[in-house]
């Protein structure tokens, strides 16, 4: 639960940073860009939580939605009526003319590794919680219950209420009670090693916070690239 809240907090922070980019630097399209930005971070959140989607599809879908806005509000601000048909045409054109250059692909690459590690860690933690809950509520066998009662209360029959069972006896009883779950030991150790690996990956080159907060700069660079190539893009779109 804590890790999920941490992911959601980072995503909200990054989304707010990205939204502020449009509100401060690209006001003519800020209102219309709000929905694509929201959809992008919703898709990324769903990916981290294990949904059947990819970082690449989320990012490229965002740039598909962004191009009609950049084209009509920044490159050709004279376009006042952006019909649904024209918007869809521009969305499809984005895939062919690549108005954002290498920046859209770079953003996919930068996010993929970090979000993959976060996705794996989220799924692993969920699995661990499920296993712990299952073993925590495992029913005791009749033999185990008898052994526990004997270990705890046999001295009481002789009036020795303050004497505790010896360590060796306690261990033998617990080994018998936990025999059914002892088979998980090797897999559990491997699971812990996997968590350590994923945690180290996220703390190193796959830092999630750095990747998410970098979305703002990636989008800004992509928009600037499109603006610099505005005349060429306009000519290409007109020729299609």
UniProtKB/TrEMBL annotation:
Gene Ontology biological process terms in this record: cell migration; positive regulation of canonical Wnt signaling pathway; regulation of protein localization to membrane
UniProt feature coiled coil, ranges: none
Entry membrane topology: Lipid-anchor; GPI-anchor
Localization annotation: Cell membrane
Gene Ontology annotations for the cellular component aspect, listed alphabetically: cell surface; extracellular region; plasma membrane; side of membrane
Record key words, sorted: Cell membrane, Glycoprotein, GPI-anchor, Heparan sulfate, Lipoprotein, Membrane, Proteoglycan, Signal
Family: Belongs to the glypican family.
Name of the protein in question: Glypican-5
């Amino acid at each position: 639960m804590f890790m999920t809240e941490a992911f959601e907090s980072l995503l909200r922070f990054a989304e707010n940073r990205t939204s502020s980019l449009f509100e401060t630097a690209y006001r003519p399209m800020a209102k219309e860009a709000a929905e694509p930005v929201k959809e992008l971070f919703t898709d990324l959140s769903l990916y981290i939580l294990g949904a059947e989607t990819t970082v690449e599809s989320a990012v490229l879908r965002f740039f598909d939605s962004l191009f009609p806005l950049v084209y009509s509000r920044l490159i050709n601000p004279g376009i006042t009526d952006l019909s649904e048909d024209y918007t869809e045409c521009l969305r499809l054109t984005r895939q062919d003319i690549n108005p954002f250059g290498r920046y859209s692909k770079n953003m996919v690459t930068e996010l993929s590794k970090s979000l993959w590690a976060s996705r794996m860690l989220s799924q692993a933690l969920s699995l661990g919680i499920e296993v712990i809950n299952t073993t925590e509520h495992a029913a005791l066998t009749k033999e185990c219950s008898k052994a526990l009662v004997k270990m705890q209360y046999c001295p009481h029959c002789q009036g020795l209420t303050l004497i505790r069972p010896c360590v060796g006896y306690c261990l033998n009883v617990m080994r018998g009670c936990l025999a059914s779950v002892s088979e998980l030991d090797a897999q559990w150790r491997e699971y812990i090693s996997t968590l350590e690996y994923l945690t180290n990956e996220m703390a190193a080159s796959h830092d999630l916070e750095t990747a998410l907060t970098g979305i703002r700069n990636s989008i800004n660079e992509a928009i600037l690239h499109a603006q610099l190539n505005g005349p060429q893009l306009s000519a290409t779109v007109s020729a299609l």
